[in-house]
Structures are given as structure tokens and as C-alpha cells.
Structure prediction request, 831 residues.
Amino acid sequence: MPIVPLKFRESDDDLLLFADDAGGYFKSDSKFLHRYALGRLEPSDIRFLHDHGHGFEEIGDLAYSGFEHRFASRQYVPHELDYIILVPTLRCNLACGYCQVSRVNENTPGFDWDEKTIEAVLRFLGNLATRKIKIEFQGGEPLLRLDIIKRVRDYCRVKFEESEFVICTNLQDVSFEAWKLLEQPDVFTSTSLDSNPLTHQFQRTITAEKTNTFFKNLAAAVEKLGPGKVSALPTINPHNPPLPQSVIDTFLDFGIRSIYLRPVNYQGFARRKFDARASAKIWNQYHSSFIDALVELNWISDQPVEEYYFVHCLRRVLRAGHNGHVDLRNPNLVGYGYLVIDHDGELYPTDEARMVSRIGQFDLSMGDVHSGLSRDTVDAFNAEALNNFHPDCVHCPYQAFCGVDLVDDLSRYGRIDLPKHLTDFCQRHTYIFDKIFSMIYSDDPKVRKSLAIWSGSPRFDGSLAKVHR
Amino acid sequence: MISLSIQVEPFPIVEPLIVRLQESGTEARSQHDAVLLDIDGHRREYNFQGFSFVVRTPPDECIDGDVLLVLPGQTSAHRLIRASSHHNTLLVTEQCDQLCVMCSQPPKKYHTDLFDQFAVAAALAPQGAMIGISGGEPLLHKTRLFEMITKVAVERPDIRFHVLTNGQHLEPSDVETIFQLGRERILWGVPLYSANRNTHDRIVGKDGAFARLELGLVTLMRAGASVELRTVVLQQNWSDLPDLATFINTRLGFISVWALMQLERIGYGRMNWDSSFQDTSTEFEQIRRAVDIATARGIRTSLYNFPLCSVPPEYRDFAPSTISDWKRKYLEFCTDCGARGTCGGFFQWYSHNEGFAALGPL
Prediction:
């Protein structure tokens, strides 16, 4: 009976983790590895491998087809363009030390969409084939151009069967009119909440007065709009991180139970201020301690809390077809399902690509709203955006769960052909999957309770931690 | 219990006839429409193409829009489509090539081909209806079945079908037809009882059934079909359920839903009740594990025909109300139950003194 190729990695319990190209995994010992490598599998080995989807009897049988289906489901296929990120202005009323998105002062002229651009954006939206649209307003501070947000919103409500709007705002200066907008049922609010008031002030608001204003507005948003319509992201400086418990407490104070921890991004102008280039190791340590804190909390709390990205990665380990999040996909094809329209009308495949282009590292623009989409550059880029054949990745048992991020590689190293294991992306994801597997194979009831919550099942069954001996 | 037949006065036909009953004052929308003229007690008289067509039914019963199959010389017509119900099923044949221990509709030897009539009836169903196709084994008459579905699909693109099949007769050459009919058109309800081929074959009473079913499922996968995988929980497969969940994850990740089903006490299910019924109100562990494994793996899992009080609280969200309206009943203690509104209750033919031991109002 043919056995599919297996990759392996040592784990901290003297066993080896084995995984195949479709994301099937199990643990076994070095004796099994020798039998496998030397072609001396015993009948009990073959039975185990067959029962668990690592082998088949003939091409086209159910075991083979099921494997094919799982493999194929793990490959991301872009759908039609239905998610547009709009940057109507680059002006902002804050000057955060790490600002990733590049910004200019509130009173600087020439960084807003002019009338011609607004009309071109509406025309661009009008030519989309999709019936459902999601629009995300970023900046700068998009609430500085409430008039543009309203025009786009009114246009989309008529043009599309369903539309949804996300306003990414610093909630610093919210007028009566802006609140009215945020309260509408198809409008969602996304903001930054940097861990706790002290850190937030240090990294973002600088003065106590502005800090108070923000926290008052955030409380008002949660109260007026409900926690389900408000999301908040903490940006963490891994060199000086807040205590995990203080981050969790702050978010819980606002009823927010999904926390997406993000390290300061080494892109845009942030790179000038923070040394994030070699910070994977300390970030991983911090992230791990954060997950441990969540496990302790979930053990005693009846209202569970999650770290969004960790849960996403956990589900990618357990399931095929979990390709819904842009930060981790394979192939990571950009410029199709969503794109960014910048303050000057330029089109970019992602927000990060906009920053890489803006600081002159590499031009990843895809044309502009006036003359239309041009995908030549990103398509050349996309041709490399997969981990299937990368010499490091083909030996990695985490390959099926993982992805690639060439924009990140480009922004950090100025090139995309660095050996993957040397990249920040690989180091961070190798850690995450190590952590996930140490938890999957843990007997600790606290860990199992959190895994059950995060995987969406009432209990986390022991057979999800298969060991072949 | 809702009746699936209805009394009619003798009508002079030599071929089976499909009639849709329309309320009075409406226009006949097709040559099959009969428009109500008069109600007199149990007697309702319709105008059917200028002839008098008479139905006998209680005065308070709503039959507007119902589609009847009237057979020559018979005074009882089949209510093929009940317009007010979501549980309409066409029994297209009573022949079958399996002999399952829990079969609710034991097979018969002879077959009457009514596919042409069923095609007409389905095309008269209410907007957006989902129509069940059951048997016997419908795919024993695969060519006729596909003809019927294709015909309805052309006339009524809004109509969908839920085909219950043992999957024994699906072949690679069917991929194109199934693909053309479309993923949204048909939900295929296919039973699989165990990942152990011997156990499965024993339960369905046919050697080699598991192997053939595997090939049938490959056909559905390659055609991109929507599949509801159905596993009746029995004493015979009780300890196999967790392994079956693993099997589904590795082989059948394409399915739309995995339905774990309680036994229906009718047909062979009644005959084999003592040796087959698994009391899940006193012992839930294997279902618990199966649901946990499948859910963590992202496979939508559902418990069909389980009274809510037989399910532990944290698994009740997995147990929708699934017993068809015309087969459903509630027990005495259900009167005081706070969950009655969302609970599917019991089959009409459920017998409580031989059934679940640990039930009660929630």
C-alpha cells in the first residue's frame, strides 16, 4: 500500500511529530522513523497510516481522493474582488511613534482625495462585478473626511445588494455626526487599544488629556454600538511589552474577548523608531506567555477569551480550507480578493505593499483608480508567493498549515529569496506551530479546556493527539 | 398525525393524474389546477378543466396548493406535496438492494414507474421548495430519476431535491450529470454506519456494500455534490463512532453535514429494536467523542431525531428539530417542558416503555 510522503520534527517529549502535505499529523518515535525511512514498515505501521489518511490502496480510491481534497482545500484560491480598503486622507490628529501606515499632520494640504479622485473611486466601485461589498476606511484618520465616507456609503448602499463598512479610527475626535454614522447597523468600528492606558499614552496619545478622551470615547462606543460592533487591536513593542494580564484586563473592561496581538510592524516609518528586525525571539516569548495567561483565565472564567491569530493558526492545523484570513495563506496571492486605494488614487494589493512602495523599497502599485488596474507587477510577485516548493518548507511538517508573506520579506530584507528559516515570518510561525502542538499533545486539563473553546468543540478529544507506537 | 392521503370521489381516469388544489376565486395556473367551488362540511368540490372533482377532508384542514396523485379506480389520493409543509417526500420506488437492520420502509419486489407524474408534481410545488426523494433505493432507477430532476430543473430552477440514496449505484460516469445538475440543486443523503467495512456491511445486510459506497462517495466528491452523511446510532456501531469521525475527517472532508441519527421504531427498526436501539439518554460518551472530533476538524455535525432532554446540555445546540411534522409526537411530560418549542419530540411510533430511560422536562 502506498504511503504519502511524511515530514518530521523533533518535539520536547522525545517523540517526533510527523505530518503530510495535506496537514494530517501524528507523533511517533525514532524507531518508526527508521522503519519509514528504510522502507521496513510493519503491518501495524501500515494499518495505522492507512486508518489515519496517510496511505491508500490505489489511485482514485476514497482514501486517495480524500487526501487530494484535503490538500486542495488547503490551497487558497482568490475569489472575486469584494473587499476594498480606502484611504481618503493621509492626515491624522495623532502622531503615534510606530505609525505603520505613514501619515501627515492634520493641517497638511494635498494628502486627501480631490473631487476627481472621489469620482474615479465611485466609478471603480461601480464597475465591480460583486453583489456584496466590504469597505474598510483607513488613513490617516478617516473621520477627518466624514463627507467622503458618507458619499461612498450612500453610493454602495444603492449599487450593492449587501454592503458593510469598517471605520478604522483612533476614536480621538468623534463629532456628533460621526457618532451618528458609527451607530448605523452596516457600520463597524475598529480602533487601536495599546494594551493599557499607560502604554497607550506612551505609544499613541502622549498627553493625559488625549488618553482620557480616547478611553472615554471607547467606552461610549462599546456602550452605544455594543461590543460586537467594536474591535480593537493592541500594537505591542516586544522590547518593552506590557504584562499579559494588564492587556487582558483592559480588553475585558470593554467587553472585548478576542484580542489580536500585533508586534510593531517593521514597515513604513515605524522602522525608523523601533528595532523590530531581529525581534522574533522575544516576540515569541511574549506571545507564548500571553497564551499561557489566557489558558489560566479560561480555566476559571465562564466567559472565554482568545488571541485571534493563535486561534486562526490552531484551526488551520486542525482543518483544511481555513483560508479566510489574509495574514496566513498559501499561495498568498495578492491583488485579487481585496485591494487598497491610497490617498492619491494609487492601487495597492495590501496595506503593507502600500508602505513598502511609499518608502521607495519596491514599487508594488497596481495602477491607479483613474487609468485602472494593472496586475503585471503583482502577478510576477504572486508567482513566487507559495511555500509548496521552497527548499526549507518542503521539509517542514508545518508546511500545510503555514503560508508565505513576501511583502514582509521584502520590507525586512529587501529581497524575497532569503532562506525561509532565516526570516522573521518563518521564525514566528515555527514558534506558533510548536506552541500549538505542545498544547495539542498536553494532558493539562486547563490547556485542553482552552483548546476546546478555541477549536469550537465542547471538549478537546484525545484522539486529536494521535501517537503511533 | 397529519395524513398523507386524502379521500376523493371516483374520477373517470385511466392514467394516473396530478391535481393541484387551488383556493376559490383564483385562476387555474396550469392544466393541473383544480379551483375550489364549494365547501359543504367535509366535502370540497373543485372545478378541474370543467369537470367536478371532489375531495373529502375536515373543514378546518388547509389543503390549498397541495398536489395530489390520483390513481385510476382509487378513492384515496396521495398528498405528494403539502404546500404548508417543509417535509414533502416522493417515494419513487420501494425496491432496494440493501436490507438495513433499521429500515423504516422495508423493500418490496415490484416497482411502478411514476417518475413522469412526480416530475409534474414537483414542478407544481411552492416557490423554493426542497423536495425529498426516497425509497427503497431511488438510484436503482437512476436514468429515470436523473431525467425527472433535469426536467424539473429546467421548468423550476428554484426547486431543490434531497435525495436519500445508499450510494451503491453512483459511478464515475455520473460525475458529469451530477455536476451539470448543480451543487445547489441536490442534497445527497447518504448513510455510512462505520469505518469498519464488516460492521457497515452487516448493518446494511449486503456484502461489499462498504467498498461500493466508497466509490459512490468518490463520485459525489468529484462532482462537487452537497452531501449529508447519515449515521443511525445503533448498538451495532456504538463503539465505532469516534473512529468514524476520524474516517470522515481524512476521507470525507467535502461533506456539508454529518448527521448522527436516533433510531426510528418502525419497519425493521421496530423488529430489531431490542438488538439495535442505543439509549443515548443514559450513555452518551461515543456520540460526545464523535461530535468533539468532527467539530474540532471543522465538519458540521448534527444530531437528528434526538429529544433535547436525551442530550447533555453542552451538546443541545447540535440537536435541531428534525422529525417531520406528520411523524412527530410529544409525550405527557413534554407539556411542562421549557424546551418544547425547539425540540423535535418523538416519532409517532416511539414506545416510551421500551425507549429512553432517563428523560424529563427541561
User: Anything to note?
Assistant: The mean pLDDT of chain A is 92.
